[in-house]
Amino acid sequence: MSHRVVYVENSRDLKLYLDSLKVVIDDNDILIPLSDVMILLIDNYKSTLTVPLINKLTEYNVCTILCGVDHLPQSMIVAMNGHFEQSGNINNQIHWNEDNKKLAHKLIVQSKIRNQRRILELNNKNINVIRKLDTFIEDVQLDDETNREGLAAKMYFREIYGGDFIRMNDDVINAGLNYGYAIFRSLITSVIISKGYLANIGIFHKGKQNRFNLSDDVIEVFRPIIDQYVYENLMDEDVLTKKYREELIQLTLKKIEIDNKKQTISNAVNIYFESILKVLETGDVSYFIEPLPYCYDL
Fold first, then answer.
1. Please, which pLDDT band fits residue 26 given cuts at 50, 70 and 90?
2. Options 3.10.20.580, 3.30.200.20, 1.20.120.920, 3.40.50.720; CATH of 86-287
3. Please, which pLDDT band fits residue 256 given cuts at 50, 70 and 90?
4. Is the pLDDT of residue 1 over 80?
5. Which residues pair with residue 255 across a beta bridge?
6. Cα dihedral angle (137, 218, 174, 229), rounded to 10 degrees?
7. Using the 8-state DSSP alphabet, how is residue 251 labeled?
8. For residue 59, which phi and psi values (nearest 5 degrees)?
9. Where are the domains of the chain?
10. Residue (of 105, 102, 55) closest to 80 by Cα position
11. By three-state DSSP, how is residue 6 classified?
């Protein structure tokens, strides 16, 4: 199973050599077997990739992310076909039962708020806010008609990052959140495609111009993992430096607990997504498996 994250910053040329990634740096060539690569992040605006390499990256289902001049993830290379049952899976996806989608939505929102609560508890935050999130979890309705997800997020972010924090402001905390979320979103997208589903047909995210609606559904419970890293490392920083960008990428190599076992985050995404699919297919909430937001080293 692939297990490496490759961060490319200095190379202008990336090529395919047999079944390996060939990274050319000055007069030196570095060969990395593609079977070992889980994520390839290219943070050099002047890098070039050959067509054979691009096709082989998609064949190996490598999560390939391209950064812009601001070093933030901007594009992703994905395969056209990801699974031998893709046509059947996409047909099922288009016709997912609406009641089951609402049920899956409710479970996801409750799980997300629970993980936010766990992060607040981990950091000894205000017990009254934690108790309020408990109330929100119980109050989530189908379609989240009373917007408990939004209300919980507002309280949660202000409790963990301070009362003046505003999501999407231009500051280092938001930069770290956006960077980490983008990395996880790309990894989740590669998992979705590998299973023969379309990332743009979501459960409750339905943006017409969003190619990653389903990815945005799946990522919700994993966001607190990034939130915790940002809280531990960026509260007193002014700039999202290369060091922190690399560490946010390396988060994908950590383990978390799911179904009472410690799994790599990639495996946890697979298990979690499969549990959502079973809820969508059957309407049985017992299939839903919730990942926890605490990270462990391999």
1. confident
2. 1.20.120.920
3. very high
4. no
5. 264, 296
6. 80
7. G
8. -60, -40
9. 4-77, 86-287
10. 55
11. strand
**Residue 137: both structure tokens together:** 């979890």
Mean pLDDT of 34-41: 92
* Cβ contact 199:189 at 8 Å: yes
Using the Cα atoms of residue 159, residue 163, residue 168 and residue 171 in order, give the sign of their dihedral.
negative
pLDDT in tens, 49-106: 999 999 999 999 899 999 988 888 888 888 877 667 788 889 999 999 999 999 999 9
pTM for the whole structure: 0.91
Parallel, antiparallel or unpaired: strands 37-42 and 63-67: parallel
- Residue 175: strand, helix, or coil: helix
Q: How far is CA 201 from CA 128, 171, 218, in A?
A: 38, 32, 12
Q: Could you tell me if 266 and 187 are in contact, meaning their C-beta atoms sit under 8 angstroms apart? A: yes
Q: Calculate mean pLDDT across residues 32-53.
A: 92
Residue 196 sits at φ, ψ, to 5 deg, of 85, 25
Fold of 4-77: Ribosomal Protein L15; Chain: K; domain 2 (3.100.10)
Is residue 60 within 8 Å of residue 37, measured between CB atoms?
A: yes
| Residue in the structure block whose two tokens are 């609402």 | 102
